[in-house]
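Issue 218. Parser rejects a valid record. Input:
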Amino acid sequence: MTTQNTISFKKNKLVDRLFPKEARNRLSKFTSSGGLDFTLIIVTTLLVVFGVVMVFSASYYNSINDYGTPYSYLRSQGIYAITGFIIMFVFSRINYKVWKRAALPLAVFGLILLGLIFTPLGVEVNGATRWVKLGITVMPGEVAKFVIIVLCATYFSRDTKRAGKLLGLLPIVIYTVVVCFLIVKQPNLSTAITVFLIAVGIAFVAGMQWRYVILMFAGIAGGTFYLIEIDKGYWHDRMASFLDPFADALGDGFQVVQSLLALGTGGLWGKGLGQSIQKNLYLPEPQNDFILAIIGEELGFLGIAALLIVFTIMVWRIFYISLQSKDNFGMYLGSGVGIMIAVQVILNVAVVTSSMPPTGIALPFISAGGNALWIFLGLIGIVLNIGRSVNADIAEREE
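Output the parser choked on:
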């Protein structure tokens, strides 16, 4: 049996074990509309609408303070959401295999975009240069996530033996390291970690052996140790504030302390939508990376639990669709999207609850920001197209 057939056999065996064939066929009929996956559309819409509501609530006082009106962030996030759904619909109509041909140009474009950060086109905000002004403001780190998904899916699908050999992994490792280095220099460690984990996750799905996984994690652990303990710069200060944020509650630990206060006062049920105290110019930029703290304060532990359940359904559905793809490229591409969303949710929760050093990581579909929302909705559109192909294949087999 060839390697290709072996991988396909293992994939089909895994799919049959997790999702029995009869259940898959019944579920596909029940949860698809016009070839699109109904469940994924519903949970995506719920998250985006909830995100717009929470951005309005979290940004209310900041918006008044910065722009003289409480509706500034609501308007911008609403526009991003509407245009994002248009992007999702367009991408759902584009054959996902097109992205395989676009992988190399995207890889080059991603590097150029990251390089532009260190030119006069780079925009610095709060001590970090993570944006590029190109008529509109672009966040290259968000684009890099999209690029790494497409590139890894393309690279491993062209030769399934690559993931099982060190030399086969080397080109992707080199590209990922360069991208992560450019992102860390912004500085933005959480985005670099996300890009790294996406690459490792897709490689693992493609057949990478455990010893290489351990080797790669050892490498990132060594790099993190260098940044914190040897370089003694930005990340050393972040680690110090993480270990004891209350030691400098008015300095480096301020944002984390305010986040913990928001979560603590929210309790089980929360204070009620719109009733947060910490968003009243206490928690910095509450509509962005720390929006989960406001959700916890206003909707309580149960609100956060419900939100995480919706995210779990989304990730499950994405993997469900991806594992049924009739080709390896679709499986790797969809899996990369699921990995990206899962990683960002976990990292965001960890940062907001002070379970890891504070670093900028958006909560998918919820945090304010157009670049991230457009990327996420575009990727959901690609997964919907993979699902359309799967449903068409099921219908054809039944005929």
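Fixed in the parser; the record now loads. The radius of gyration is 21 Å.
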